[in-house]
Amino acid sequence: MGCTPQLNTCSVLSEQASGVQRVFNGTDLGLGKGVYGVLHRLGRIQPKIKPIPWGKPRKRDPRGEGLGVKRGFIRTTIRAIARLAAIPSMTIRRLSHSTMKPYQHIPILDCGEPLVAIPGSQFALVLPHPYELLGAPYAGRSPFYLRQGVLTGLIQAQTYLQQQYTQWQILIFDAYRPIAVQQFMVNYAFMEQVRSQGLDPGNLSPFERQEILGQVYQFWAVPSLDPATPPPHATGAAVDVTLVDEAGIAVEMGSPIDEISPRSHPDYFAQSSDRDHQEYHKHRQILAQAMQQAGFAQHPNEWWHFCKGDQMWAWLTHQGTAFYGRVE
After folding, report:
1. CA dist 194 → 21, 81, 141, 200 (Å)
2. Which of 27, 153, 195, 213 could form a disulfide with 294 if both were Cys (CB 3.0 to 4.6 A apart)?
3. Of the listed 113, 192, 259, 302, which one is catalytic?
């Protein structure tokens, strides 16, 4: 079944057989040991992105040695995440209701498009995937899948980009995200916020827990199992992206993907007179223009998140119905 609502076109894709797949890891992007320095601090990208030599690699083991992370923190984090994951389902349902986003009231009439693989011959990919390195439960599924019509739009966006910047590419950080992965990453982001505020994850008060969850849910969608309120990435209609230039270097955006802070807002640097800040804003505009001319809508709080056909897209583009719901 094809999707025909406004701002979307569905067509059968013919993946290009030519071209070399561009794979990026943390060292390629100058973002710390491993992908996005994920085992140091997920998404803490340095504003100046250049390859960094890290010297002789150290042996890694399951306890965290060689990862630049203290074993005590690893153990504490794992235990606290386990406690958070053990919250009764009734509590999770209440949290979902209390944190419902405006777009989640929009009805979904799923058009039945399949998930299709993002062709590595056409786009730069971050591999291995950062969330997989953290242990997110993908159960053998790849995050680099999108609905067919969304992938069509992504190809259109890159075509537009390359008309302006011939050898630049869209770099795919994340796309399809199962509910179990969403839950895992919400737990991880929660623990990161706890750590960043100097709190003891084993001794949080109910008020502190709710405050931190509120901060997390400003950026991360609730991992809802309700078909009427799916997280955007679980629909295969949302994608987290940035840009790489002709030298294969990640373009400077001024803040890392997944950072929970005001810097993540698309126009955060718009009014700054600082030269570097103006450059960051320009790069964000280049990315947004490429995606928006292909029918995508941008998340109001995240410069990297774009969607097409899901509830958030319908809300941002004033459509009455979304045509992509949760997909397995």
Report:
1. 38, 11, 30, 7
2. 153
3. 302
